[in-house]
Amino acid sequence: MNGLRKYIDKIKPNFTKGGKFGFLQSTFEGFETFLFVPDTVTKRGTHVKDSVDLKRLLIIVVLALVPAMLFGMWNVGYQHDAAFGLGWGFWQMFWYGLVKVIPLYLVSYIVGLGIEFVSAQLKGHEISEGYLVSGMIIPLIVPVDVPLWMLAIAVAFAVIIGKEIFGGTGMNIWNPALLARAFLFFSYPSKMSGDTVWTGGVARYMAEGKAYACGNGIVDGFSGATPLAHPTLEGLQNAGTSFMDLFIGTVPGSVGETSVIAILIGAAILLFTGVASWKIMFSSVLGGLAVGYLGYFCGATDLPGYWQLVMGGFAFGTVFMATDPVTSAQTECGKWIYGFLVGALAVTVRLWNPGYPEGMMLAILLMNTFAPLIDHYVISSSIRRRAKKVKIA
């Protein structure tokens, strides 16, 4: 690393103002600060001294997402193997999933970072680091078969409309990754139904030396039902899906949302490092359980409330998206209210909206919208209480 540091210091004058490539200063600084802690210092006294800058904080979130990503890659191959009975081993499943998922990441980062770099150059600002996390999350919350051109449009929409027009990272109202998913859901609903997922089929046919015709083409796969397609005990039992299957994650679904175990590992990393709020996570779980058991006792579903926590994207949304510090509530009391409403609304949509089997995306986006209002009333209430104490004194 010392050699790389020396090389960067050597070429740095070329990318500063007045240098040969001075117009690329923001781009160069983006790469430099991604690799090394910035060497700039304040000229006056500082109130807070900490070596963890925004990039380091975001990289912690990226690391927390790795278990869900790796399991998702394996699960893509596992679902393919289970559907076609190929008898694959662990690594065959993983490599199949890797080949399917990597293109999603390439499109996500090439398009997203490309727009951020161009935007920074045009404005003459430093490159925004926020997309490090958004680019990691987006491929995990979409079906593995989403057409790459659709994903590219969704990413462009999320970055331009969801972030840049508001001023970039830290100024956005809604979670950019969820905006990309929402764009896909409402623009191309057949690809984002929430109750089916694609399973590839070509590998089996090629291995057997067969060509299964479908019209004028060859069958590439089929759409299999996810647990949200049959959210009843009888439906899940008929599909051969147990609670433990949902908890482990060996079920069809979006790439990174199926394994609660992998998500909990990420949650432990975020909580141990203090990056995410435990209040939001815990209150979201309480909200989901409250409405889940309300629906259970009212007869809206025969699934006990705790099943809602391991189905669909509830766990992933609670840990990685509801806790986004930019778009969530900022006050301590507000975090409890915000998190509870996220979990409650998500399960409400599942149980009482037959046209939409998954509600986590809509719940988080809606509460992103109302988070500032929640903080406003929490602060106003606190001021009124303190004012009364002053009058009494």
Biggest beta sheet summary:
2 strands, antiparallel
Global Rg: 23 Å
Low-confidence blocks of residues: 202-220
Helix content: 55-70%
Q: How are strands sequenced across the largest beta sheet?
A: 1-4
Tell me the structural class: mainly alpha
Number of strands: 4
Counting copies of identical and different chains, the oligomeric state is: single chain
Which descriptor suits the 3D outline?
globular
User: Could you spell the SSE succession in H and E letters?
Assistant: HHHHHHHEHEEEHHHHHHH
In terms of topology, how is this protein built?
Blueprint: H1 2-11, H2 25-35, H3 54-84, H4 90-123, H5 131-137, H6 148-160, H7 176-187, E1 196-200, H8 202-208, E2 213-214, E3 217-218, E4 221-225, H9 233-238, H10 243-248, H11 260-272, H12 278-298, H13 314-321, H14 332-352, H15 360-392
Antiparallel strand pairs: 1-4, 2-3
Helix pairs in contact: 3-4, 3-5, 3-11, 4-5, 4-6, 6-7, 7-15, 11-13, 12-14, 14-15
Q: What does it look like?
A:
By secondary structure, the protein is mostly helical. Residues 202-220 have low confidence and may be disordered. It starts with a helix and ends with a helix. It is 59% helix and 4% strand. The protein has a two-stranded antiparallel ribbon. Helix 4 (90-123) runs parallel beside helix 6 (148-160) and helix 6 crosses helix 7.
